[in-house]
Amino acid sequence: METIIAEPNRKSESKAILDFLKKINVKANVYKEPSKKDILKSIERGAKETSLYLQEKVHLKEAKKLLNEL
């Protein structure tokens, strides 16, 4: 199996590619890039969590314990 990555410039191009892949029975996975706003929100959330941890208001789980729960 091979992976092909297409980066269309417009939504119409994206739709045309997906329609074609559907027509020839090829499974397509679409991944949207996060916006700058989403990235900044994520950084802000991480900073808040770190701040709460440093103030000892929350306790973080060890990675091994977290993976064992999964």
Write a compact overview of the structure shown.
This protein is mostly helical and 70 residues long. The chain has helices at 11-23, 36-54, 63-69.
What features would you highlight for this structure?
mainly alpha, 70 residues
Structure characterization notes:
The chain is mainly α and 70 residues long. 56% of the residues lie in helices and 0% in strands. The chain has 3 helices and no strands.
User: End-to-end span in angstroms?
Assistant: 29 Å
Query: What percentage of amino acids are in beta strands?
Result: under 5%
Give the CA-based shape: elongated
Largest pleated sheet: none
Mean pLDDT reading:
88
The radius of gyration over CA amounts to 20 Å
Low-pLDDT regions: none
Alpha-beta content class: mainly alpha
Element order, helices and strands? HHH
Number of strands: 0
The helix content, as a percent range, equals 55-70%
- Number of separate helices: 3
List the topology elements.
Elements (H helix, E strand, L loop, with lengths): L10 H13 L12 H19 L8 H7 L1
